[in-house]
Amino acid sequence: MAYYYLVSQLPNISAAESKSALPLTSESFREIAGRFITEKEKSVLSNLSLVPSMELNASGSKFLDIWYEKERNLRCALAQIRAQKLKKDTFPLPAGCTADIISAARTAVGMDSPLSAEQFLYEYRLRLLDDLRPLDAFSIDAVYAYGIRLMLVERMRKFEVENGKTSYHKIYDTILDGDKQ
């Protein structure tokens, strides 16, 4: 089924936009999309997340299944590299963890600033999303891809340098205090 009316109503979301308000939120996106899609698709849309389940569950969308697998592998690679850096026990990476995912994780973990690492990962995820984007711009998978992009942009806009530094130092001090006990 083509979703011409739905997709044509969705405003362009630029990842490079300033801190100005986005043209719509994830909630309003779900509300608009809900008018044009089936109940099954609404269920998939309501479960869109930037944090995939660690279990390999079918989402009902091949696009989302691939996106979640890539995101899961990135998170596993980040966890393993961070654990190695802290000289902690590690676990084997999933079989689908490709060299580009490991390279992105190493680059992010190697950055001095957590904000710089988040910005790098944000850009990496947007590029990955563009690479996975369905060829049919009027498909339900294109609607899901739009939702993921919107959530990524919303998440990145929440980062503020001073709040991040304060939070980082608080967490870091807590970890150091925990290791001393």
Could you describe the 3D structure shown?
- The chain is an all-alpha fold.
- Helices cover 64% and strands 0% of the residues.
- The chain contains 8 helices and no strands.
- Helix 4 crosses helix 5 (99-109).
- The longest helix has 24 residues, at 62-85.
- It is globular, with a radius of gyration of 18 Å.
Tell me, rounded to a whole number, the average pLDDT: 89
Low-confidence segments, given as residue ranges, are none
Overall strand count:
0
Helix percent reads 55-70%
Distance between the termini: 59 Å
Order of SSEs, N→C? HHHHHHHH
Largest sheet: none
Helical element count? Answer: 8
- Class from secondary-structure proportions: mainly alpha
The Rg value, from CA coordinates, equals 18 Å
Percent strand: under 5%
Overview in brief:
The chain is mostly helical and 181 residues long. It is 64% helix and 0% strand.
Could you list some keywords that capture this structure?
181 residues; mainly alpha; 0% strand
Helix-strand blueprint:
Elements: H1 4-9, H2 26-34, H3 39-46, H4 62-85, H5 99-109, H6 114-132, H7 140-157, H8 161-180
Helix pairs in contact: 2-7, 4-5, 4-6, 5-6, 6-7
